[in-house]
Write a structure and sequence with these properties.
Order of helices and strands: HHHEEEHHHEHHHEHHEEHEHEH
Radius of gyration: 19 Å
Distance between the termini: 22 Å
Subunit structure: Homodimer.
Catalytic activity: uroporphyrinogen III + 4 H(+) = coproporphyrinogen III + 4 CO2
Bound molecules: coproporphyrinogen III
Keywords: Chlorophyll biosynthesis, Decarboxylase, Lyase, Porphyrin biosynthesis
Pfam families: URO-D
Strand content: 5-15%
CATH architecture of one domain: Alpha-Beta Barrel
Number of strands: 9
Protein name: uroporphyrinogen decarboxylase
Shape: globular
Helix content: 40-55%
Number of helices: 14
Largest sheet: 7 strands, parallel
CATH class of one domain: Alpha Beta
CATH topology of one domain: TIM Barrel
Structural class: alpha/beta
């Protein structure tokens, strides 16, 4: 989950000096510095690369920006077969060399005291941004495409799937020790549509990566995935990240014995008292039971969260004995 972000004063200070998100996330020195900010203060077990799921888009011939107060903006949203035709296969070493360099430096800096984590966007979630033109409420444009011209959308999803498989391999080769796939908007689909427009492409990515990197742990996160839980292990990922709207014990049962779980403390809990935070952590760990569990929040840390409460989360977490 997002570790940097606007709740840290040190990150806000960098944003003042470098107001462009693209610059902060595409300059090796800044990427390394920002990625290490939470590590230096909280010493988590995982250090996540500072980047965005949209970062590969410019290398795929899809110009974008992330605008303060507005979020992601795609300058020329895709809608036709000709638009999809123009999308280039992603070649990470040519388009995002700064990501590889930053991961390699992070591995050295972290010195095996924590795992360095990479991430990518899932095909459906990336497609929803490039078709909608940015964040969306009703996802009308991508649904119009899915339900009236599905072939066009499938062609786009296929390009994202092969490109993201390549990107995961690249991140692993440069130093990432686990990679999380964010399918943030897959849950906007009904299960039958998830089976057509998201699941096959997630499986394609996982199958392809496992052929060359069988040991690389792959984590899948989809926010609001309660209605899809039984289907998520079909992707073949090793870990499923749950948000807080699912009871951890029930989630574990519904996912079955073959996957590890991650999560799922409500990020809003970090606005509570220290005692409240401690209780929720203990509750989550107890409910996750004896199987493999990565203790985490159920989504990114919210802007305005007191840093001392984040520190408390880590203190409690590190004191736990599994
Ligand atoms: O800890 C980290 O720093 C990890 C880096 C990270 C970012 N985005 C940096 C970022 C990660 C893992 C992401 C993933 C991401 N980006 C997702 C998947 C996770 C999720 O939330 O479901 C999605 C959907 C995006 C797309 C995106 N990027 C949105 C919707 C926004 C706007 C959010 C906002 O509140 O404005 C971004 C911008 C963004 N990416 C920020 C950060 C720290 C905040 C803007 C900023 O710092 O300037």
């Amino acid at each position: 989950m997002r570790q940097a972000g606007r709740y840290m004063k040190s990150y806000q200070a960098i944003c003042e000096k470098y107001p462009s998100f693209r610059e902060r996330s595409e300059n090796v020195d800044l990427v390394v510095e920002i990625s290490l900010q939470p590590w230096q203060v909280f010493r988590p077990d995982g250090v996540i690369l500072f980047s965005d799921i949209l970062t590969p888009l410019s290398g795929m011939n899809i110009p974008f920006d992330i605008v303060k107060g507005k979020g992601p903006v795609i300058f020329d949203p895709l809608s036709t077969a000709a638009d999809v035709e123009k999308v280039r296969e992603f070649i990470p070493e040519e388009s995002v060399p700064y990501v590889g360099e930053a991961l390699t430096i992070l591995r050295k800096e972290v010195n095996n005291e924590a795992a360095v984590l990479g991430f990518v966007g899932a095909p459906f979630t990336l497609a929803s941004y490039v078709v909608e033109g940015g964040s969306s409420k009703h996802f009308t444009k991508i649904k119009r495409l899915a339900f009236s011209q599905p072939k066009i959308l499938h062609a786009l999803l296929q390009k994202f799937a092969t490109s993201m498989a390549k990107y995961i391999r690249y991140q692993a080769d440069k130093g990432a020790q686990a990679v999380q796939i964010f399918d943030s908007w897959a849950t906007e689909l009904s299960p039958v549509d998830f089976e057509e427009f998201s699941l096959p492409y997630l499986r394609l990515i996982v199958d392809s990566v496992k052929q060359t990197h069988p040991e690389l742990p792959l984590i899948l996160y989809a926010s609001g995935s309660g209605g899809l839980l039984e289907r998520l292990p079909l992707t073949g990922v090793d870990v499923i990240s749950l948000d807080w709207t699912v009871d951890m014990a029930e989630g574990r049962r519904r996912l079955g014995p073959d996957v590890a779980v991650q999560g799922n403390v409500d990020p809003g809990v970090l606005f509570g008292s220290k005692e409240f935070i401690t209780n929720r952590i203990n509750d989550t760990v107890r409910k996750a039971g004896k199987g493999k569990h990565i203790l985490n929040l159920g989504h990114g840390i919210i802007v305005g969260t007191p840093e001392e409460n984040v520190a408390h989360f880590f203190e409690v977490a590190k004191g736990l004995r599994y």
